């Protein structure tokens, strides 16, 4: 359009393949999928030597505008769609792209259970902040089986939710405070989404309790006569005269499915970044090699494994041994970033498994329970 900006985000041009690919499969017209693939491949070719991507680019010049990025706003669904495209269409190219990008994210963005932002060219940290959009990441990790990392990050997001009653849009990790101009909560779904995925993967009733807390908060702080209102300031719970469509499409949907998963039971679906389910159909997949066809597999019967008791659902802290002799790890334990307990800041230190208190960095540069 005339006078339209030529700037777009990585997620904006990299999150088309699910919908356009499905449209091509349903209509038999390959043009939609081809257009989405062309944009995705162009974007992939613009990665840095560290296999990182920026946040925004110019669609006419093909040059990056914002070099700093993370897993949140402007980039989030780009990573999401690489993996989900592999699940939906079965093309190995999507998996190789996602795996490469995921390894780079874990290497340059991850700091304990948190994810900061970094410069795509150098890998150097730029912004130490939690954003509400990052809360989708644990759900994505569930899809690749990285449950431990997903649970660790999810627990931190939920801790911030409980502290403020809802999840603020931006929280400054280095200053341990809410961003002064981004104190709002627009009824975002990402924490509910990750809670749904983690419950599906673990069946740990603790995640049901998390969902109940989210529902109670929404009813307590955001429910009004005509619907649910966005929170303008989480410190005062002042409301706005606005309800985003994603509240119905995603937030309510994921919470509903958390408590009643009959829709997804014994069915395979991939949810788009706007919460719309697409069926995983064998007809949409490329033909697999003979060795991958289940009818050619050899199976061996195994004894049913005893169900493990979850420390999260038992709220165990500290670690303890049950009467049955089973050792249950502490639910609160978060290891220090380094195995030798050395640190530069408090962010390098975890949560003590015995007292469940957050450890801090001493003047000498060691993590411990120094603050009383």
UniProtKB/TrEMBL annotation:
Top-level taxon of origin: Eukaryota
Name of encoding gene: MNS5_1
Enzyme Commission code: 3.2.1.-
Keywords: Endoplasmic reticulum, Glycoprotein, Glycosidase, Hydrolase
Subcellular location(s) per record: Endoplasmic reticulum
Pfam family, one: Glyco_hydro_47
Name listed for the protein in its UniProt record: alpha-1,2-Mannosidase
Entry's family note: Belongs to the glycosyl hydrolase 47 family.
The organism's taxonomic lineage, starting at the top: Eukaryota, Viridiplantae, Streptophyta, Embryophyta, Tracheophyta
Gene3D superfamilies (UniProt xref): 1.50.10.10
């Amino acid at each position: 359009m005339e006078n339209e900006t030529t700037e777009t985000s990585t997620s904006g041009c990299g999150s088309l393949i699910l919908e356009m690919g499905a449209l091509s499969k349903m209509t038999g017209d390959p043009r939609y999928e081809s257009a989405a693939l062309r944009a995705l491949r162009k974007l992939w070719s613009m990665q840095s030597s560290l296999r990182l991507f920026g946040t925004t680019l110019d669609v006419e010049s093909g040059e990056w505008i914002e070099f700093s990025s993370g897993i949140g706003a402007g980039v989030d669904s780009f990573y999401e769609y690489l993996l989900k495209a592999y699940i939906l269409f079965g093309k190995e190219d999507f998996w190789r792209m996602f795996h490469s990008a995921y390894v780079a994210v874990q290497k340059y963005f991850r700091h304990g259970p948190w994810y900061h932002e970094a410069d795509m060219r150098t890998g150097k940290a730029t912004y130490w902040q939690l954003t509400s959009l990052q809360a989708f990441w644990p759900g994505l990790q569930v899809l690749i089986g990285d449950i431990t990392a997903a649970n660790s990050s999810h627990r931190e997001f939920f801790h911030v939710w409980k502290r403020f009653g809802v999840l603020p849009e931006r929280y400054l990790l280095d200053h341990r405070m809410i961003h002064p101009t981004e104190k709002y909560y627009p009824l975002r779904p990402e924490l509910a989404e990750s809670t749904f995925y983690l419950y599906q993967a673990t069946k740990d009733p603790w995640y049901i309790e998390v969902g109940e807390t989210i529902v109670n908060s929404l009813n307590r702080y955001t429910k009004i006569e005509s619907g649910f209102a966005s929170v303008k300031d989480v410190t005062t719970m002042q409301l706005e005269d606005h309800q985003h469509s994603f509240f119905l499409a995603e937030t309510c949907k994921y919470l509903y499915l958390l408590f009643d998963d009959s829709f997804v039971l014994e069915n395979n679906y991939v949810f788009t970044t706007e919460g719309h389910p697409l069926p995983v159909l064998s007809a949409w997949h490329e033909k697999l090699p003979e060795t991958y066809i289940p009818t050619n597999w050899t199976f061996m019967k195994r004894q049913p494994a005893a169900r493990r008791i979850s420390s999260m659902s038992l709220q165990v802290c500290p670690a303890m041994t049950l009467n049955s002799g089973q050792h249950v790890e502490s639910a609160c334990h978060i290891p220090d970033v380094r195995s030798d307990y050395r640190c530069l800041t408090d962010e390098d230190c975890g949560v003590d498994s015995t007292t469940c208190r957050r450890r801090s960095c001493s003047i000498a540069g060691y993590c411990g329970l120094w603050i009383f």
